[in-house]
Amino acid sequence: MEKQNKVSLTRLAKGAIEERIDLEVPKIIDNIQDLNTRADKKRTLTITIDFIPSVERNHVTLNTVVKSKLEPTNSIQTALAVGFDKTTGEQIVVELVPSIPGQLDMSGNEQEPPAVLKLVR
């Protein structure tokens, strides 16, 4: 009898399982390197292989799903001031800025005017 070429389970399906793993790992590494995510949280690579036997038990179908669980990007916070425009009486919402608009900071950068939220009614 000729010697059989034994392969890992991940090499089945013409290497498609291994290929899917190889596609997910860079996503995990990119997510770890993303400064907008928490560095200290774990990321997970999940490989689910379902073995589905035939009624006669002489064939088994493998159904494989490879997926990664990444860390979501950090939340973004800002503060808003809510009030009314004294001249028009309209409600106005303005993003708070750290300094008075036009004022220079210690680096010589000028504080830009605050963003005004567009309210659609």
Summarize the SSE layout with pairings.
Elements: H1 16-33, E1 44-53, E2 60-69, E3 80-84, E4 91-95
Count of distinct strands: 4
Terminal Cα span: 81 Å
Summarize the biggest pleated sheet.
2 strands, antiparallel
Shape: elongated
Helix content: 10-25%
* Beta strand %: 15-25%
The structure class reads alpha+beta
What is the typical, i.e. mean, pLDDT? Answer: 91
What is the C-alpha radius of gyration, as a whole number of Å? 28 Å
- The topology string of helices and strands comes to HEEEE
Contiguous low-pLDDT stretches (5 residues minimum) are none
Count of folded domains = 2
Widest beta sheet: strand line-up: 1-2
Number of helices: 1
What does this structure look like?
It is a single chain. This protein is an alpha+beta fold and 121 residues long. The chain folds into 2 domains: 9-69, no CATH class; 78-121, no CATH class. 15% of the residues lie in helices and 25% in strands. The chain has 1 helix and 4 strands, in the order αββββ. The chain has one helix at residues 16-33; strands at 44-53, 60-69, 80-84, 91-95. It has a two-stranded antiparallel ribbon. The model has no long low-confidence stretch (mean pLDDT 91).
